[in-house]
Design brief:
699 residues, four-stranded antiparallel beta sheet, globular
Length: 699
């Protein structure tokens, strides 16, 4: 066995070189290729009924799309039919032996999916899906549907172009390419990630885009200066102008990776955070390694780097302690201020806790982040792998409250490496103790060793709890896969493509931490309400008032987006209710908005003065369960409303337009024609949003 001893600081440079050497070497070997599902994370056939999460990718149709070299993921209602669909990006689409491109899975309303061929069905050119690392979904023109920016290049073999498509499904049934007309650059780069926010507070979503450092990998690009953060201001009418130099974002700033948007100082202007991974700052001293934080000092007119405020205890910027692969903003301690998670690949992860004064305090192993870091220093060139088999590095990342909806964010870490896979790590937040405990078993059992990348959350099946989608797959540029040797010494390829993991939350019991869901719709702010902050007030089990905090965010962590429907923690039972206080990006406030367990409510931004607040109309539906009739009791003076009843498949089974209550404020709904089962009553109130309540019919 040949061994090469490496210094950790130079290890990644060596590995990148090995990628090229071994890929070329691979084709000279008479190697056997293993079946594509032999080492993939295909979903398990059965699940432990006691497990919280069960990988049901096969059962719900997500394996019908084939395997992927998975990168980013998104959960959103793409076709505007009321349920949450899935997008997975596939970084291997140019490979001749990998016929798949990035794909969409449409939800039928029950958590079962049908794959969409984006080229044949929706008109998205496969030439615009080459080494796709991310699809950024955002409502560019505030028309109520999500448009698509395809981010191509990444760790591909070739530089590629961005591609921007307008969502025209409700008119032509297709997406319409708009890249050139939008003024988004046609330059080819190793584009890596993107996110969106209304940085200038004009009600339109702007976009920030990163590319990785070309000359860190290819000497032919020495002197390359195109690895900046590009910031595109939305001018309206789906046109943009690039303003990074104008507003003070430096060029170049190094090997950019993933972006996150936050208002760390709560001044109302959204700031920008980027992770950076300089493999050897000594070789590239002008770039400065690590995370950079840019304060939005003029609400879109100027950005100032304030990275030193991240933590005075961390050594100067450029030292290894600053390196990060993925970053996410979240409220770790639920104090109403956004903190930062630094996923640091082969180094100890950090949480930077916001001190409310522009500085942060670093936390790691003392709060339970106990991953075994590093790849070791001995590399086996015969087996093509690090001698320590299990690696606990942070590559993929998700930070969200998905475990029990107590309002405290949990952490899902995607491990793995181009040369070998790893077991996922999941940390469950322990609440007020502000510690984390491992709770990884469901995911380790669910898809086993994998290269875990983008992850996102949503209530995909509409049962009131949070499910999780994990996009899996390795590096397409490894050729036929990962090279190993069988017991006879023959070379064997382990494929690095994989099926996605779809984790259905099968706990079913939401009584311990009851849940409601809200969707925020801006009327003065951007329609998606990106940047809105929600304070959730409820009474806990001992009668005391508690608060939780949520932000409406776009893509962060590892190039992924959670559903637009936000889960609202209602506190431990028997509370079951909460009051919302919403700070919209425009500065308007919505106060004293009540929600109840089981609610699914769309809340529209109001122009009512902040001090007056807005209380949601309180509808009462009874009896529930119901048989022949259902009574809808309305608040006095509510005026006309539209009532629609839908089944679990999302099909309308009854509709009443412009109804008013009788003298007692009551409207009677005839249920005589409905079969036994679960239904949803959707009540649309002009100017005050949509209220949805679940009923059970026992006919």
């Amino acid at each position: 066995m040949h061994k090469i001893h490496l210094f950790v600081g130079h290890a990644i440079h060596f590995r990148i070189a090995l990628l090229t050497v071994f890929f070329l070497f691979a084709f000279s070997l008479n190697a056997q290729k293993m079946p594509s599902n032999e080492f993939t994370g295909a979903s398990t056939a059965t699940c432990d009924p006691a497990a919280t999460f069960c990988n049901k990718a096969l059962e719900v149709g997500l394996e019908d799309g084939g395997t992927a070299y998975g990168r980013g993921a998104a959960a959103l209602d793409i076709d505007n039919d009321g349920d949450i669909d899935i997008f997975i990006s596939d970084s291997g689409s140019p490979r001749t032996d990998h016929p798949y491109a990035s794909r969409v899975f449409l939800n039928d309303g029950t958590g079962n999916f049908t794959v969409v061929d984006l080229e044949d069905d929706w008109g998205i050119d496969s030439a615009n899906m080459r080494y796709t690392f991310q699809g950024l979904w955002f409502d560019s023109d505030n028309d109520g549907d999500s448009d698509l920016l395809l981010v191509n290049g990444g760790y591909g073999f070739s530089v590629e172009s961005l591609a921007f498509y307008l969502n025209d499904l409700n008119v032509s049934g297709t997406f319409i390419e708009h890249t050139a007309a939008s003024n988004i650059t046609l330059d080819k780069e190793y584009w890596w990630s993107a996110t969106d926010a209304d940085f200038d507070k004009d009600g339109l979503l702007d976009i920030a885009i990163t590319s990785r450092n070309r000359f860190a990998y290819d000497p032919a690009f020495a002197g390359d200066t195109l690895n900046a953060i590009l910031l595109y201001q939305n001018l309206g009418n789906n046109e943009f102008v690039e303003i990074s130099e104008t507003v003070g974002l430096p060029n170049p700033i190094g090997d950019n990776k993933n972006l996150s948007v936050l208002d760390y100082d709560r001044d109302g202007c959204l700031d920008l955070l980027t992770s950076k991974w300089e493999y050897d700052p000594a070789l590239f001293p002008s770039l400065g390694g690590g995370v950079k934080l840019f304060k939005n000092t003029g609400c879109g007119t100027a950005f100032t780097e304030v990275s030193l405020g991240l933590n005075p205890a961390i050594p100067p910027i450029g030292a290894p302690e600053w390196l990060a692969f993925a970053v996410a903003s979240f409220d770790y301690d639920q104090d109403g201020w956004q903190d930062i998670y630094m996923g640091r690949f082969e180094r100890q992860d950090y949480i930077l806790r916001n001190n409310h004064d522009g500085t942060f305090t670093k936390l790691d192993s003392e709060i339970g982040l106990d991953m075994g870091i590093g790849f070791g220093t001995v590399y086996d060139t015969t087996a093509l792998g690090w001698l320590n088999d299990q690696v606990e590095n942070t590559m993929g990342l998700l930070v969200d409250d998905f475990q029990n909806n107590d309002g405290y964010p949990d952490v899902a870490i995607g491990t793995g490496h181009p040369f070998h896979p790893g077991d996922a790590i999941v940390y469950c937040h322990q609440g007020s103790s502000l510690d984390f405990d491992r709770c990884s078993d469901d995911f380790v059992i669910g898809h086993g060793l994998a290269r875990n990348h983008g992850a996102c959350t949503a209530d995909f099946d509409g049962d009131g709890d949070i499910d999780l989608l994990w996009n899996l797959g390795g590096l397409a540029t490894l050729g036929d896969g990962e090279l190993h040797f069988d017991t006879l010494g023959n070379p064997v390829w382990w494929p690095t493509d994989d099926f996605p993991g779809y984790y259905e939350n099968q706990s079913a019991d939401t009584s311990t931490y009851p849940t409601a869901f809200v969707k925020l719709t801006g009327t003065v702010s951007n329609r998606e309400a990106i940047g809105a902050r929600i304070r959730i007030e409820f009474i806990n089990s001992v009668g005391a008032t508690e608060n939780r905090y949520l932000w409406r965010e776009s893509a962060d962590a590892f190039m992924s987006q959670n559903s637009e429907w936000l889960p609202i923690p209602l506190g431990p039972a028997p509370s079951g209710t909460a009051t919302l206080f919403i700070e919209w990006p425009s500065g308007l406030l919505t106060n004293n908005y009540p929600v109840t367990a089981g609610d699914r409510v769309e809340i529209f931004e109001t122009t009512v003065a902040a001090e007056s607040g807005l209380a949601r109309p309180d509808f009462k539906l009874w009896p529930n369960p119901a048989k022949d009739q259902l009574f809808v009791e309305m608040p006095v003076g509510i005026g006309e409303i539209d009532i629609r009843i839908v089944d679990v498949l999302g099909s309308t089974v009854g509709e009443w337009v412009g109804v008013e209550g009788n003298d007692a404020g009551r409207f009677t709904v005839d249920l005589g024609g409905l079969g036994r089962g679960v239904y949803f009553v959707r009540m649309q109130i002009e100017g005050k949003g949509l209220v949805t309540k679940k009923i059970v019919v026992q006919n």
